[in-house]
Amino acid sequence: MTAPTLRSVGLDVGGTKTHVAFEDTSGLRGEVVVSSTEWRRGSLFSDTGNLERLAGIVHDHGVVDAETSVAAGLNGVDTSEQARRAECELSSALGTALITVSNDAELLGHALGPEPSLQLIVGTGTVLVGRDQSGAPLRAMGYGWRFNDFGSAPALVREALRELHRLADHTTTVPDPLAEVLQAAYGARNLTELTLAISDRASLTEWGSHAPLIFQAADLGSPSAIRVIADAADYIAAVVHALRQRGAVGERIVAAGGVITNQPRLQSAIRAALTAIEEPLELLVLDRPPVSGALVLASLRHRDLRRALDVPVPCAPLP
């Protein structure tokens, strides 16, 4: 059976999963989701074979020719130089120069339409992106679960432990439900044992897997859990305001990611925080896969990319 020729391909590469959507020349659509660890070794650019393996996933589902347009949102692409490097390597691996690459967060706005917006991902990590009036990209957060990415799954657990230490150091109140649910999850009898257990098992996935417990504790009335969620929302709202001050345009924030999508309490807290600082932005939680934005972008840019296409610039190593 002859493999279909792909006309548009959208790639949404996140920290944990890779979502590929495609449309062939007959108008038929398909998609596939794989774990990002199936093809990525380390960070995006730390292994020279990463993008070639990503291209292989596309090749597995159809034929790519010179007319195939590809739009890729890649976690780990944070500068224009990195975007250009990824475009060049994917072009070489796929056999088409009709490729546009951005940070994966930028796909969110395209999924809902052409209006300018800020894009917010709160899941495995947290990142906020936008563009100024000239089209130049702007970005905030996204610096990792150890020190930044407030509101993300691992950061919520990080801040929960900090809040429990603050509570222990400054009060003599009865145990908080937040401490109780975390101690039960880690088999710890007290805060000292909990701290050792969380520290010994420090990783993005380990901490992140316990993030739902913070919301569970908040539902049980935990003042500490409620404060952790509110603090994360306040931080995100302040960064939204700062990005607007830096020139980001748009009247809405399009959000996605496992935490914000599945936790209405965080959504409400962010909306309240935006209102408190008088940022009249509408927060829209994406109701479709972000890869749909990549597929839309690939289709829309096909004509413009064809018109502007010239001899591809050779790939150069990042400085």
Quickly list its features.
10 strands, 18% strand, 319 residues, alpha/beta
Task: Sum this structure up briefly.
The protein has 319 residues and is an alpha/beta fold. Helices cover 45% and strands 18% of the residues. α5 crosses α6.
Fold and architecture overview:
By secondary structure, the protein is of the alpha/beta class. The protein has 12 helices and 10 strands. The strands form 2 sheets. The chain has a 5-stranded mixed sheet. Strands 8-7-6-9-10 form a 5-stranded mixed sheet. A hairpin with a 4-residue loop joins strand 2 and strand 3. The longest helix has 23 residues. The radius of gyration is 21 Å and the shape is globular. The protein starts with 5 loop residues before the first strand and ends in an 11-residue tail after the last helix. About 0% of the residues have low confidence.
What layout of secondary structure does this protein have?
Elements: E1 6-13, E2 17-24, E3 29-35, H1 50-59, E4 69-74, H2 80-94, E5 99-102, H3 107-112, E6 118-122, E7 126-131, E8 137-141, H4 153-170, H5 177-186, H6 191-200, H7 204-209, H8 212-219, H9 223-245, E9 252-256, H10 258-262, H11 264-276, E10 282-285, H12 291-308
Parallel strand pairs: 1-4, 4-5, 6-9, 9-10
Antiparallel strand pairs: 1-2, 2-3, 6-7, 7-8
**Largest sheet composition:** 5 strands, mixed
Number of strands: 10
Structural class: alpha/beta
Tertiary shape: globular
Output the helix-strand order.
EEEHEHEHEEEHHHHHHEHHEH
Rg result: 21 Å
Low-confidence stretches: 310-314
**Helix fraction bin:** 40-55%
Q: State the helix count.
A: 12
Average pLDDT metric: 90
What is the straight-line distance between the termini? Answer: 45 Å
Report the portion of residues in β strands: 15-25%
Strand order of the largest sheet: 3-2-1-4-5
